[in-house]
Amino acid sequence: MQKTLLIMGAGGHGKAVADAALLGGQWQKIVFVDDRWPDMTSAAGWPVIAAMSGIGQVARQADAGVVAIGNNAIRERWSEALRETGIHLAVVIHPSAVISSGATIGMGSTVMAQTMIGVDAVLGEGCIINAGATVDHDGVLGDFAHLGVGVHLSGGVRVGARAWLQAGCCIGYNTVVPDGSVHTPGSILVQESFD
């Protein structure tokens, strides 16, 4: 039986999530929802079928959904909207990701190509782990946290809800990254930064 994934957001991240979902083999069809509809009718070869406000009308066309929008607050809001329509939140994992059997990944999260998630790591709901990022052992990400491309978390790091670590950030052992904080590309954070 072919399964259809609804992806909210047909931009660059949405296309990458579609690619990961299809490569993973769990999903065979993609439909997008994006506010550029009806001017935009396709992305990555798959149909854009409605604007965001129309998800209630198209919910039955998919088996589950995921929000592929980098903005953490918007991703949280639209994930709640998906739930309200009765759409089950999916987890999308690229097949090249290396994930410990002891890791936990929250619903609505996306784990992209060449990532590593270590033993006893816990990802909350709606997290983005972008290409090449690592979450070492015992790392914890709050709901709707976002790791950019090539972010590296040492063991025991705690990333707060809705925090955004942009491309190339490197976080030292047991550092706590506050809720909602934003860190520019290449930032190096150690626990002393927050004393």
Itemize the secondary structure elements and their pairings.
Elements: E1 4-8, H1 12-24, E2 29-33, E3 42-43, E4 46-50, H2 55-58, E5 64-67, H3 72-84, E6 92-93, E7 98-99, E8 104-105, E9 110-111, E10 116-117, E11 122-123, E12 128-129, E13 134-135, E14 140-141, E15 146-147, E16 152-153, E17 158-159, E18 164-165, E19 170-171, E20 176-177, E21 182-183, E22 188-189
What report would you give on this structure?
The protein has 195 residues and is an alpha/beta fold. The protein contains three helices and 22 strands. The protein has two domains: 87 residues, Rossmann fold (3-Layer(aba) Sandwich), CATH 3.40.50.20; 94 residues, UDP N-Acetylglucosamine Acyltransferase, domain 1 (3 Solenoid), CATH 2.160.10.10. The radius of gyration is 16 Å and the shape is globular. The strands form four sheets. A six-stranded parallel beta sheet has the order 6-9-12-15-18-21, covered by helices on one side. Strands 7-10-13-16-19-22 form a six-stranded parallel beta sheet, with no helix packed on it. Strands 3-4-2-1-5 form a five-stranded mixed beta sheet. The longest helix is centred in the first third of the chain and has 13 residues.
